[in-house]
Specification:
The protein is an alpha+beta fold and 470 residues long. It is built from 15 helices and 18 strands.
Length: 470
């Protein structure tokens, strides 16, 4: 974001193939001060700096060396396609434009003074409009009316194949119907990758799923480890869903995202790729959960578990373990499905003021900058407490927003690696509305905590009953 007094900017794309150096671009013509490549150290966009200055770095940060001049260009990171060079207190628009002829001819985009960064609200609206258009084009390529219809169609198609194969009983085995969708039945374990992938083998005319090995501490074979096999099952289902986001063009299966991105100029493709990649990941994560833990079977399992269990404050934790075992999924997947469906029987059993929070230490905030903080990862959150409506929370919420005391208690529990469970009684700050105005509610959380993951970064499950303090 440009500071006050900036009068214009030059947009330089990440995907440029012009080997011109920063000095040769002649920002000199704007300021009278030549900027050489060693003045600016760009660490984030390796490809760009390799093209512009013949050097590349590895750190995901951008640092600047302050120049002793009032009218110096400043290199700023952007949220879309690259970085920008801005000019402070430069008002001679016509002279500036004439100075930029060589930059334009070199293939770099230029925004004149009239198209300076918009105010935050207007810029957000513009970005949302761009994302909407990119998503609409993506849906047109897939031949779908909405993202929800894409997800539902994938689930119904796979469920129909499972039904015909008699494979609807948990645990669901998607490999039994993989060949119906041109997917190689057995995935390959590739130790050179960190994330699972799906590729189309044009020679064999089938899709190939590659899974990254996930090894537990002290384990040497991921295929024999129970927890790892559950994560692998979800990864397999995730990539299975990706297969339905390919379209047939001229006898070849092509990813719909690649078709949409290819319609943009080469220097502008990063934005659509980022937007649509997030869309695809959300769809595939949701589809994987719905296929491995179907709603009807989950409700049936919860009803059966409640009928065979005694009232307990740890009821949800125990049912989560049972769901994970029966459906052969991780606790993460089981909780995500439980919190999204919220079976009526379980809600009545736990009470309207029950909450279940998954918290953990974030690596960083924003685009790789800022201090690490404890944040909310997932949740089961009450909508009403003692007759008062409570504002919802969201994933990524800094736990300090729910009260400084709660943040300190959770931080101490995460730091204490010797204990794995215990009781917790702590004040918690809630928000409500009264007469259209926000209102703070002083409440108290009384419950328990358990270790959710032991491997760094450590994560905790905090659950119990919230009551208002009178």
């Amino acid at each position: 974001m440009l500071a006050k007094g900036y009068q214009g900017l030059i947009w330089v794309s990440t995907y440029t193939s012009n080997p011109t150096s920063i000095a040769e671009i002649s920002v000199t013509g704007l300021t009278g001060h030549q900027i050489s490549p060693d003045v600016l150290r760009m660490h984030r966009y390796h490809k760009m700096m390799r093209h512009l200055s013949g050097s590349s770095c590895a750190s995901p940060r951008l640092t600047l060396r302050k120049l002793n001049t009032k009218n110096c260009p400043i290199l700023c990171p952007t949220s879309r396609n690259g970085f920008r060079i801005s000019m402070r207190r430069f008002t001679r628009q016509q002279e500036w434009v004439s100075r930029l002829t060589r930059i334009r001819s070199a293939g770099y985009g230029f925004r004149p003074k009239s198209s300076l960064p918009l105010p935050t609200k207007e810029r957000t609206t513009t970005e949302q409009e761009m994302k909407r258009k990119e998503t609409e084009r993506y849906l047109a390529v897939l031949g779908a009316g909405s993202l929800a219809s894409v997800e539902n169609d994938i689930v119904e198609t796979v469920r129909s194949a499972l039904r015909h194969s008699g494979c609807l009983a948990p645990p669901i085995r998607l490999s039994e119907v993989a060949e119906r969708f041109q997917i190689r039945r057995r995935p390959q374990i590739d130790r050179t990758i960190r994330c699972s992938t799906l590729e189309y083998d044009s020679g064999a005319r089938e899709f190939v799923i590659s899974l990254a090995p996930i090894l537990a501490l002290g384990d040497t074979d991921s295929t024999t480890n129970r927890d790892n096999s559950r994560f692998q099952r979800f990864a397999y289902a995730h990539e299975f869903a990706h297969r339905f986001l390919f379209v047939l063009r001229d006898g070849h299966w092509i990813r719909a995202l690649s078709i949409v991105a290819g319609e943009f100029p080469k220097e502008s493709r990063l934005g659509p790729i980022r937007v649509l990649s997030r869309v695809e990941e959300r769809i595939c994560n949701s589809v994987a959960g719905r296929l491995l833990v179907p709603e009807k079977e989950l409700r049936r399992h919860v009803t059966r578990a409640l009928s065979n269990s005694q009232p307990s404050p740890h009821l949800l934790w125990e049912i989560l373990g049972g769901v994970a075992r029966s459906f052969q999924v991780s606790r993460w997947c089981a909780f995500r499905r439980m919190s999204s469906i919220k079976p009526d029987d379980l809600v009545r059993a736990m009470g309207e003021s029950f909450c279940f929070l998954l918290v953990g230490q974030s690596v960083s905030t924003g685009a790789g900058h800022g201090a690490s903080r404890i944040r909310l990862l997932d949740y089961w959150w009450p909508g009403c407490i003692d007759g008062a409506d409570v504002r919802p929370v969201y994933p990524g919420l800094e736990i300090g927003r729910l009260g400084g005391e709660l943040a300190r208690v959770v931080a101490s529990l995460i730091a204490n690696t010797k204990e794995i469970a215990g009781e917790i009684v702590c004040p918690i700050d809630l928000k409500s509305e009264e007469g259209g105005q926000p209102k703070k509610l002083a409440a108290q959380l009384q419950g328990w905590w358990r270790t959710w993951t032991r491997t760094p970064p450590r994560q905790l499950a905090v659950y119990g009953v919230i009551g208002l303090r009178r």
